[in-house]
Every structure is written in C-alpha cells, then in structure tokens.
Amino acid sequence: MKTSFKTLLAAAAFATFATTACSEKTQENAEATAESAASDVSNATEKAADATSNAADNVESDMAPEAGDTAVVQNKETEGLVEETPAKQ
Predict the structure, then answer these.
(1) Measured between alpha carbons, how far is 29 from 15 in angstroms, rounded to an integer?
(2) 71 found inside a domain
C-alpha cells in the first residue's frame, strides 16, 4: 500500500486538530473520521496506481507489432535537421 507524504501529513494534521475537541465523544468521533479519511485516501491512491498500471499495459499491447506492419523505426542520432521526403506525385 503506497501513501504519499502529503497524505500522511494531512491525516496527521487532521488528527491533531481533531484531538483538541471539547468532549471525549467528540474526540473519538474525530479520530474515527481521521482514520476513515486516511483509509479512503489510501484506497483511492491504490486504485489510481492500479489504473495507471493497467493503462500502461494496454498501451504496450496496442504498440505490439501486428501481421502486415511494414514500418521500420531506427534509433539513430542525426547531424542536423531531419528533412521530410517530398511526396511522389
């Protein structure tokens, strides 16, 4: 489970604020709310990470060569500008 530093900082700040409540019952409710919020953020972060991973997998599978592909890509350094080949008429 991945949680960002900002998420932990926000949860800690909220918990600190919540613990200064007037009554014990209010304090317990605030702590439960802080824990719930941290859990919700953690779950959302995990779902976002999964979605990003799935999107990357989809792009990779979309880029796989298929039968009939004829393009050849060469990764070479150029010495200057790359000129377009004039279209044949």
Answers:
(1) 11
(2) no
Is residue 28 a part of any domain in this protein?
yes
Report yes or no on 10 lying in a domain: yes
34-80 pLDDT tens trace: 888 888 888 888 888 888 887 877 777 777 777 777 777 777 777 77
How many independent structural domains does the chain possess?
A: 1
Exposure on the CB side of residue 48, measured as CA atoms within 13 A: 9
Q: Which domain holds residue 14?
A: 5-55
**What does the pLDDT look like over 20-40, one tens digit per residue?**
545 777 778 888 888 888 888
